[in-house]
Write a structure and sequence with these properties.
The structure is a homodimer of 198-residue chains.
Chain A: H1 17-31, H2 38-45, H3 49-56, H4 59-100, H5 110-118, H6 124-149, H7 159-178, H8 184-196
Helix pairs in contact in A: 1-2, 1-4, 4-6, 4-8, 5-6, 6-7, 7-8
The structure holds a DNA duplex (30 and 30 nucleotides).
InterPro entries (chains A, B): Homeodomain-like_sf (IPR009057), HTH_TetR (IPR001647), Tet_transcr_reg_TetR-rel_C_sf (IPR036271)
DNA-binding region (chains A, B): 37-56
Pfam families (chains A, B): TetR_N (PF00440)
Chain lengths: 198, 198
DNA sequence: GTCTTTCTTGAGTGATCGCTCAAGTATATT
DNA sequence: AATATACTTGAGCGATCACTCAAGAAAGAC
């Protein structure tokens, strides 16, 4: 029941907590909140109920950790993209990246999936997803602002509006990519073309 | 157990089947598949379990009926819009309409919500939603084709591509509209502006 | 080796899930 | 009124849900 309380540890946990959170994130990402049972988690993480609850407290708490990991990984990836290719280059590369990365367990955005599933229930996790979506939008906004400052795009439209529109299109693209028999690459390329002509 | 089998009926059902399906559709639309329990349905439709199963067979079957009603109502609405305002007018009016209609129980598209929730489980209802999304896309495609034939928009891009992009943006718009604190009207207006300059 | 602290185990909790069915009730036909 | 047929009722089914906890196993401290 107590994980890592005292400094001198008689017995260390036999797992890598961070890896477990990543595995849980992948499961939740693909199957959603209600679609992921504790049996699923126990099987994927190879943990018995007791260990699971000692380590994470509850399914809800683990989902929250998974959401935060999802968001912070995404944020870091975009930041890296911006470091290497500039603000506009990052925004242009993102659409194709999110729908073609092979290691991701799903194409659709985990935040939007969570929001759609749980918002109607007033579930705390929906609010968390909502907050993280706002953070994402703010990051987009900052990049558009930099792109304008560096005169890479026109200043005709407010960065805030550009960011909102971009995020909306991106969410739509990622749903389209989740569908079978839809060539989302074409949509992504059009989206990027739209960015180029701003 | 037998509903409407013989012509001469000793006792007619006391409910309006179509209205029940609409009520169920609204519940499923907002709360999703797993998020809607039979207790919820029994309360909303004012039916005891026995009547429910006599009338609809199963929760899954009712959800299927609800999906079909959702899709056919949407299809008819768009057709009416086209009759009154032409193909381009219909496509231009749709975005603002779907995010601002007060009678709809949710902003996001029920088909996309169903797809996102159930696709990973290989659930039959996800396949149904997928089929209906394809039908919707086909309807968009036909309207874009008519708009080109009537020389309302350029023929530079294939109607199929225009339809796919439009549907993708619309799905994104509707998710954005579902969020709190997001002014989706601005996104919708931009989307419509994009259509005007095709 | 002994002790102490912590992690692991898994049978089992009450609650809720979708669903069944035997009994009761209502109505058109005769 | 009697009968036949079909709808309504609601207690309760087995299965699964997220979760608990007492007992056992492992490892650092001494």
């Amino acid at each position: 029941m107590i994980i890592q309380e005292s400094d001198s540890m008689p017995r260390k946990p036999s797992y890598d907590r961070n890896k477990l959170i990543e595995q849980a994130r992948d499961l939740f990402w693909t199957r959603g909140w209600a679609g992921t049972s504790l049996k699923d988690l126990e099987a994927a993480l190879k943990m018995k109920p007791g260990s699971f609850y000692a380590a994470f407290g509850s399914k809800e708490n683990l989902f929250d950790l998974a959401l935060q990991k999802y968001a912070s990984d995404g944020r870091m990836r975009l930041q890296l993209l911006s470091d290497h290719h500039g603000p506009l280059g990052a925004l242009q590369r993102l659409p194709l990246l999110v729908i073609s990365s092979d290691d991701a367990p799903a194409k659709a955005c985990m935040l939007s999936k969570t929001l759609l599933e749980l918002q109607a229930h007033g579930h705390p996790l929906a609010e968390r997803a909502s907050d993280l979506l706002l953070e994402m939008e703010a990051q987009f906004c900052a990049l558009f602002e930099q792109a304008q400052t560096q005169q890479l795009i026109s200043t005709a439209r407010k960065p805030q509006d550009l960011a909102r529109r971009f995020q909306s299109d991106l969410l739509g693209l990622r749903i389209s990519a989740e569908r079978n028999g839809i060539n989302a690459t074409l949509i992504a390329e059009e989206l990027v073309r739209g960015l180029a002509s701003l």
